[in-house]
Design a protein that fits this description.
Blueprint: E1 5-9, H1 20-29, E2 34-41, H2 53-65, E3 72-80, E4 97-101, H3 109-122, E5 128-131, H4 140-152, E6 156-160, E7 179-183, H5 196-204
Parallel strand pairs: 1-2, 2-3, 3-4, 4-5, 5-6, 6-7
Length: 215
């Protein structure tokens, strides 16, 4: 992977500290070649409501059409299924990346996981991923089912350097048959591009860097 990327960044549209333009300019100054803004769509925290989605998308689209100092800008979103009743409105926009967070964080993870699979099945052209996913709530008897479905539906597994989710024991089952995304989960400029540990994880596992998605 020759390009320098960061596909998980938050701005003042949700719980980030800076507006999108400031974050993108800071990323460019750090030599990051590709960024994806992925603000929260949730009912629990400072986040995008359904009414905010259009403004968010239009704002980011305008920014990426302008000079971004050599950094390519992609438009993503991070969705909390535990507090969002409907995913219908998401289909009105051409997202570059949709991350579903905390899918396996609750005892009812099977319901959330099925929602992700159903969404991907209905929208096969979207790149759909699992943000800072840990599989620790998945029992040994169910892990094969989960990983097989992730592979079948080409669900992207994010390597999130803020949470170090790739230290989860079930990640030892992952290999070059899966697709990955790398993100810093930056809420502040200082964290932008902090992805070295994730890249090292792939190298240590002998997973080719071309298994990291390209938007």
């Amino acid at each position: 992977m020759s390009r320098i990327i960061d596909y998980h960044i938050h701005t003042s549209f949700s719980d980030g500290f800076f507006d999108p333009r400031d974050m993108i300019q800071a990323a460019a100054a750090r030599g990051i070649q590709e960024v994806c803004i992925t603000d929260h769509h949730s009912g629990w925290k400072p986040a995008l409501s359904v009414l905010d989605l259009e403004e968010y998308f239009i704002t980011l689209d305008e920014i990426r059409r302008q000079d971004s100092l050599g950094t390519e800008v992609f438009i993503g979103i991070e969705v909390d299924l535990s507090s969002i009743d409907s995913l219908f409105q998401l289909q009105e926009f051409q997202w570059d990346l949709i991350l579903f967070e905390y899918v396996f964080a609750q005892s009812s993870w099977e319901k959330s996981f099925q929602q992700v699979l159903n969404f991907k099945k209905k929208n096969p052209d979207y790149k759909v991923g699992l943000a800072h996913a840990r599989f620790t709530r998945v029992s040994e008897s169910r892990i094969d089912y989960v990983l097989n479905k992730i592979q079948e539906f080409e669900i992207i597994i994010e390597l999130n350097t803020r949470y170090g989710n790739y230290m989860d024991q079930w990640f030892n089952y992952l290999d070059s048959e899966y697709w990955y995304s790398i993100g810093s989960d930056a809420h502040h400029k200082d964290a932008l591009g902090n992805t070295t540990l994730a890249i090292n994880y792939l190298k240590q596992r002998n997973i080719p860097l071309d298994r990291v998605i390209s938007l």
